[in-house]
Amino acid sequence: MAPKRAAQLSLKMPTHAVCVVGVAAHVDVRSDVPKGANSFRVSGSSGVEIFMVYNRTHVTKPIGKARWPLDTDADMVVSVGTASKELRDFKVRVSYYGEQEDQALGHSVLYLTGVDISLEVDTGRTGKVKRSQGDKKTWRWGPEGYGAILLVNCDRDNHRSTEPDLSHSWLMSLADLQDMSPMVLSCNGPDELFDSHKLVLNVPVSDSKRVRVFCARGGNSLSDYKQVLGPQRLSYEVERQSGEQEIRFYVEGLTFPDADFLGLVSLSVSLVDTGTLPEVTLFTDTVGFRMAPWIMTPNTQPPEELYVCSVTDTHGSNEKFLEDMSYLTLKANCKLIICPRVENRNDRWIQDEIEFGYIEAPHKSFPVVFDSPRNRGLKDFPYKRILGPDFGYVTREIPLSGPSSLDSFGNLDVSPPVTVGSTEYPLGRILIGSSFPKSGGRQMARVVRNFLKAQQVQAPVELYSDWLSVGHVDEFLTFVPTSDQKGFRLLLASPSACLKLFQEKKEEGYGEAAQFDGLKHRAKISINEMLADRHLQRDNLHAQKCIDWNRNVLKRELGLAESDIVDIPQLFFLKNFYAEAFFPDMVNMVVLGKYLGIPKPYGPIINGRCCLEEKVQSLLEPLGLHCIFIDDYLSYHELQGEIHCGTNVRRKPFPFKWWNMVP
């Protein structure tokens, strides 16, 4: 709305005013009044609605055709329901009366030109632009909420470009329009009106670097779409053509929510009277958008693609591991994508380099890869090979200092949907490792933590991972889907469960059964020797305390009960005060639906079976899961990683629409 102004009536000549359809216009009936007049009566032509605004507790409305006293505290307001076909085709007449009620002392005439001006977007979140009579400026969360949504145009639709589409200030491909949100300007009225009036689109300075607006002129050529708003372009005088009633625009998102950006932007159109000096804004219509957040997908979402790297080291290639991954993806009906050595530069830790997520608006959704600031051998892979049509890219770089191990995305996970007390997290909660409860220590970079928090829809939880040498949350936890009512279980590495299992086997008479049985490159150590090793016992007491601290945080922040947690046997050892896995870390698995690719632990063989594998199967297979143990000892475990570290999964988006939640 423009500042409130009133049409000034005159007894000497008609007054002319522009009235926007559906918008009340104030009329000053007291600006020029005949001498002796004390009341007035109003009439209007067809299509004009006239009403008086007054305080019912202080003013009594006249009965029937009685006139309104001039000294009454009431204001006259008029509106029109349709646009005019020609100038001044609506009429309002005000007659003034004195003591003699049957004879008017004078008349004022107001001619109105109706014009239909509105800026429309997908406020109802249906995927289509519809005329809205409600609040278009405000954005509301929840199933009863409203407000339009923008996608950050971070994919690359044109194969001739090497950069994301948002890097270009011009349209690179007509397909790019699908990544933008449509906006329609209604501008119906007599053509002559626009000889003395103009329409101006505006974007606030603070929002101008967040969006671009393209004007569409209906053709199939890129030249038919002109950028009219955006960085360094704060306003645009609309080029309305004769007889044009609607003009279509496309709005492009440029930046994700972050510490310095709440995700909200606005655009407006103003009707400006150019026939006055200075020019006067008669009406402004404003629409608001929220930038779609980047959303992670948990292990409970069905897998679509499994990424793994082909590498070679002193032990040879990881070809056998790739064959095992091929078998696993075949079982899970999931596509396998192998990143060749020429692209990974012998960097196998693809989980640490990237995290897959997605963005969604009512009209469009596509996956977006988040590139970590780790920047090792795989640093160019997501930008050069994953970024493409309908596959977006986002990253955050660490200013000044270099990344720590905790900045790798093995230290980034997300829970399945949870309810904590009365608070619902329908998209789960992000989990990141930190130095809590220690003072000091390593943390994930602030720029990454700020980005994750700013998305709002998966409120992050910080865990304690700095007790580990590598320092990643995937070294002690994972989630698996289940077919029961809960829908998932949290798996935690458990030294106490492992020591208890070994003690039971000792008491059953299997104390000489050895860990690492079947491995050529590692000396065996018996159950008796492990249980008698004071250093190993001490190290695992420390590891268990660290995991228990996280267990309590996870129960509190995810609303979990003990029955929602499964303890997976695992031992650690301390090296320079930080923990490493003593044998392949089984929770560091890859989850493909009900099929689990688990690091082969090479545990003590009892009655022809690995007792560690047997124990894990007894815990997980009753939940409807299939355990497939895979040898990763030389290619991954000896390099302080496991299967999860060396793989990455793109999963289906949530069916739940993020805008229906209330963060």
From TrEMBL:
Keywords: Calcium, Cytoplasm, Hydrolase. It catalyses: L-arginyl-[protein] + H2O = L-citrullyl-[protein] + NH4(+). Residues 115-273 form the Protein-arginine deiminase (PAD) central domain. InterPro entries: Cupredoxin (IPR008972), PAD (IPR004303), PAD_C (IPR013530), PAD_central_sf (IPR036556), PAD_N (IPR013732), PAD_N_sf (IPR038685), Prot_Arg_deaminase_cen_dom (IPR013733). GO terms for cellular component: cytoplasm; nucleus. The active site is at D352, H472, D474, C645. One of its GO terms (molecular function) is calcium ion binding. Its cofactor is Ca(2+). Residues 282-660 form the Protein-arginine deiminase C-terminal domain. Residues 1-113 form the Protein-arginine deiminase (PAD) N-terminal domain. Its main location: cytoplasm. SUPFAM superfamilies: Cupredoxins (SSF49503), Pentein (SSF55909), Peptidylarginine deiminase Pad4, middle domain (SSF110083). It is an enzyme of class 3 (hydrolase). The keyword Hydrolase applies. Catalyzes the deimination of arginine residues of proteins. This is Protein-arginine deiminase. It comes from Colobus angolensis palliatus.
